[in-house]
Amino acid sequence: xxxxxxxxxxxxxxxxxxxxxxxxxxxxxxxxxxxxxxxxxxxxxxxxxxxxxxxxxxxxxxxxxxxxxxxxxxxxxxxxxxxxxxxxxxxxxxxxxxxxxxxxxxxxxxxxxxxxxxxxxxxxxxxxxxxxxxxxxxxxxxxxxxxxxxxxxxxxxxxxxxxxxxxxxxxxxxxxxxxxxxxxxxxxxxxxxxxxxxxxxxxxxxxxxxxxxxxxxxxxxxxxxxxxxxxxxxxxxxxxxxxxxxxxxxxxxxxxxxxxxxxxxxxxxxxxxxxxxxxxxxxxxxxxxxxxxxxxxxxxxxxxxxxxxxxxxxxxxxxxxxxxxxxxxxxxxxxxxxxxxxxxxxxxxxxxxxxxxxxxxxxxxxxxxxxxxxxxxxxxxxxxxxxxxxxxxxxxxxxxxxxxxxxxxxxxxxxxxxxxxxxxxxxxxxxxxxxxxxxxxxxxxxxxxxxxxxxxxxxxxxxxxxxxxxxxxxxxxxxxxxxxx
Length: 485
Known about the structure:
Blueprint: E1 2-7, E2 17-24, E3 45-48, E4 56-64, H1 70-86, E5 91-95, H2 106-120, E6 138-143, H3 149-173, H4 181-192, E7 198-203, H5 206-210, H6 214-219, E8 228-235, E9 243-253, H7 273-288, E10 293-303, E11 315-317, E12 323-325, H8 333-346, E13 351-356, H9 361-366, E14 371-375, H10 377-390, E15 394-396, E16 414-415, H11 424-433, E17 441-446, E18 452-453, E19 463-464, H12 469-484
Parallel strand pairs: 1-6, 2-4, 2-5, 5-6, 9-10, 9-13, 12-16, 13-17, 14-15
Antiparallel strand pairs: 3-4, 7-8, 8-10, 11-12, 14-17, 18-19
Helix pairs in contact: 1-2, 2-3, 3-7, 7-12, 10-12
């Protein structure tokens, strides 16, 4: 899509539709139409149709000025672009100056609108006979400053962010017979091999056994697909402390011998959302040329029942000396993340962030729009603040030491599930903490509730959201800046 910036005084008569942003509590729009209060509601799209051959007009509500944020702008843009494509418009001119400068800086508004616009157009329909073809070909952004290098920089930055987010969406949306563990492994290698400052290493078979990655080997016992741990290092600034990003790449989670049930289990393919978040974040860091010393560790397998599958009561031994009783084979994510956490320690990571679709319990606690984060208070605080800006929102959650006892086992060091029906997401975080060095800064993100959208909403469409890509990349860049100060 072509995106350009023009003076707000330009008529832009060539655009099919001219778009005004309406903010409740801000100045009234200079329109020939009466803008009602309801039209300023966030995400509300009101179209005024002109006569045949003339330009149409639209008003997009941004909500109240007191609650306006880049995420609100982003979501409104997503709602707008879908509405315009449904009407068959090919070009739109958007007047951005309606957003008060004292509320949001222009570059922030512009960048958020472009992100929401591009992500809102996203569809995953490659397997349909007649896939959806978007009609919009051009976005014209109008503001008092006209074309400027700063505006163009903001547009290109937003393009990179959306491309990496859509990469995560694409891979996570793939059906299970396409995105197998072997296919995911190969795609990662193809994506990153040979890119600047990047090194790729794959652990499979004997290499997994030699490194004691017994969680992956155990979980994959029932599958004909080979598990893997893929290590992608991006070292553009080796003077920085090593930061490890660990993603759960469960390409399909049937629950193993504790088999899941349901009318349609298609959503089990989204259990690789953590892996996709890390992959997308690394892609964005490389594309941005960011200063970083980061290693991505992607633990890949599928969790299906079959001959030789992991059985409840089985014991998994880890290189740090811990033994784990498998109380439930559907709590497999923490078993393979443990491999990644221990490997990050062996690589000398000073800081670790793991991200996974780990528990249904996090959704019961936080709903479907904000993920949970546990661990180092400074890390969780930074992730919370960055997420509020990027839209990948997280909420700090507690690590209650007393609850460690709930992971007890009669015949192993710990169980992979809690003995309590409550606080399952907290218990999972406590389990993972046992595999992190005491001197290592660590945070755990449970994104099981945010990996997919149940409907088209804002800039998300039904299916994978690409959650975590922008959050993780922003965090890595922020940490690099802090270390250089």
